[in-house]
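ENTRY TYPE: paired fold submission
RECORD: A
CONTENT: sequence, then structure tokens
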Amino acid sequence: MEWRGPTYRMVDGERVDGVWCHVWRQDPLIATHVHDLVVYADGAIEWERSELTDLAGLERRLAKGVIAVRNPEDPPLPEQSSDWLSRSSEPRTPESFLLEVADRIEELNGRPTTVQRCREAIRRYRQQPTELSREALREAYLAIPAHRRIYALGDMDRQDRPLRILLTDVGEAVDGNGPVVTEEMHRSVLEYLAEFDRGVTQRPEPVYADDPTGAVPAPVVLPGTVYPRGWPEKPGLFMLRNNYPAEIRFAGRVHPSVHDGYLALAETYQGDDWPDVRLAVMAGLLRAKFTQHPDLAEILLATGGAMISYAGHEESPYWRDAGSRGGRNWVGRLLELVRSELSWPTAG
């Protein structure tokens, strides 16, 4: 079973990315047949092309046997003679597949998967090789879907055997039927992990010809603050917000603010064209704001080369930075673009 993609669906004009794989539908009235299971970044899971569910719904279908993770008509898998000697991963089960789907959702959102969290636990153990950190590493490793606990270290030869040795107490047999662990074996694993750490975490970062020199400035955050007594008189970053009252001329009309202009132009588009052009419209509105108001341009230019995080709650996640919950931060990115364009005339 392989995951394929990319794919997506549109929700309120916003693209939600996804990936898909084959599963098997078991129906007592008809023959077993293959279906596509699509997993989206917002946690929605598409089943039979029209039915949407979530992880809990998928868990129920797996438990009832409505969805199978391998063809029920295939012969049963042969039993493994020894967990320690086996070169194959454990078979995928409904329980481990559910964890794999949860991993895909994390990956689609740019968050660490269970394998990545396990590697981070390895690095923490390397820094502090205590019994507490070894227990944390054990929990991180066991959180990986069982059928994927084979290449967490990325080592095609040793696979995950060094980890399995380390996580087994001295005097116990690895996997119940492997070698009995000794203190020397634990020390050897620590030496192995030191090499692993150097290869994975201390790899030199690539250097590009157009990289900026000097320290990277801290991000500039534009919070969505409400001013019940009116906008402050003293200039500030709040003037970069889309709803700040700065009259602009754009597309043959005058608008009280970027926000008002965006809403007005959205109403003029018919059909399905708006999702395709809204980014260009927003870019044009922001260019108009800062080219027609030099005082506001000075505030934008004062942010230097910092990343701009357009926070708040009033805009959709497509436009704002929603932190750990996601968000595309397109307004922040377009503000950086306009800032760069404003800087260009002074560069020559």
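RECORD: B
CONTENT: sequence, then structure tokens
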Amino acid sequence: MSISSSIKSIQDIMRKDAGVDGDAQRLGQMSWLLFLKVFDAQEEELDLEQDDYKAPIDEKYLWRNWAADAEGITGDKLLEFVNDDLFYHLKNMVVNAEKNPRGLVVKAAFSDAFNYMKNGTLLRQVINKLNEIDFTDSTERHLFGDIYEQILKDLQSAGNAGEFYTPRAITKFIVKVTDPKLGESIMDPACGTGGFLACSFDHVKENYVITSADHETLQKQIHGVEKKQLPHLLCTTNMMLHGIEVPVQIKHGNTLNKPLSSWDDEFDVIVTNPPFGGTEEDGIEKNFPSEMQTRETADLFLQLIIEVLAAPVNGKQGGRAAVVLPDGTLFGEGVKTKIKKMLTEECNLHTIVRLPNGVFNPYTGIKTNILFFTKGKPTKDVWFYEHPYPEGVKNYSKTKPMKFEEFQTELDWWGEESDGFAGRIENEHAWKVSIEDVIARNFNLDIKNPHQEEVIAHDPQELLASYQQQQQEIAELRNQLKNILGDALKSSTGSEA
């Protein structure tokens, strides 16, 4: 049976269980099972490679010792073991981070995990299906990448879980032009399921890793933080599948839940798609300077990224970043204006790629942009590149997503930052704006393509799609406005008090 068939069978079995309610819980259930199976496969490899290897968790909890036998415990006995023994032990392990980092990874992965299944016989069936996948086989491990992609797409449709998924075409393009190298610290402060980190890992491995020592270096380069349990667990599993033996740098927490002034870490490369359109819990904004405080998540992440990018030292270029942000960041005023001013003063905001509608369908229809910047030198010019739909395409969808090949025109045009992108020329999709013009616009970066006239559509289907798109954008902007007004009201009330 193929891996895809195995995963589909697992989901079908879970639908019969009364304890599993909806796609999100099915994915959560599958995630901790996958984690333990992948972890055990890695344990077997490490045991073979190292003399006197000691398992990081009690051996009775390793997958091979309770799950691998198709005729093993089932029914109520299996449920009792999982709920009262396995989960209790893994959540409450006493772990020394230095002596047992892999044990720490397991404890973190299970900190907020749950067994949703109530039927032990169905749980055994799910486990037996997972046992059909051999994660020690390099071919099967490679094929699992496709299945992992499908899991992420399923997440995209599971309620609000779509925020964890960035289309792979965008991830690959960003990593390609940002070009993380061996030895550079790579960070995603809102890493979700680890798409940017996995892509960065593969990029460095394919282009710069030669020796086993290089591979050891690469494993320590990857850093990420994820606030929610399910994507954090998937990200940790994703990193292990990519060969990171101890993904302790994948933290479970809120990156913003720390005063900006207390950050000592610096990173060479930051690639991320932070959550946008949402607001942070009360008090998070207090971690930022008073004049820059806001509860809008994307604005806070942009400030953080500017802060933690490595400064240039001894002639070495400063840290570089690529960040996916909504149109609202480009044209927004107030705190947004102050953030953009700081960005262009502390960094070279050299390129903004304007993405078309529908890239993140069905999660959101809001138009998005990719901002590329490097810390250490102020901005002189901002290049814009408006990414066009491919011929014959009027919008993207879940079944017809953006493809990496579409970015070939940008890749051919891109050039080198070391020579100030001297080879770039304006064309129907690309144009340059001086920082003086940006300042004159009060840092409004929502600058239209001067080479294209507005096209008026008359096709009824196109007009209907455009209307629906506008209604979604209006609704999301209305929610943002409510949050802003709520913050202002709170601030006003506090001042009067």
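NOTES ON RECORD B: The longest helix spans residues 460-496. The beta strands are 186-188, 222-226, 250-252, 269-272, 320-326, 347-354, 368-375, 381-386, 430-434.
STATUS: closed
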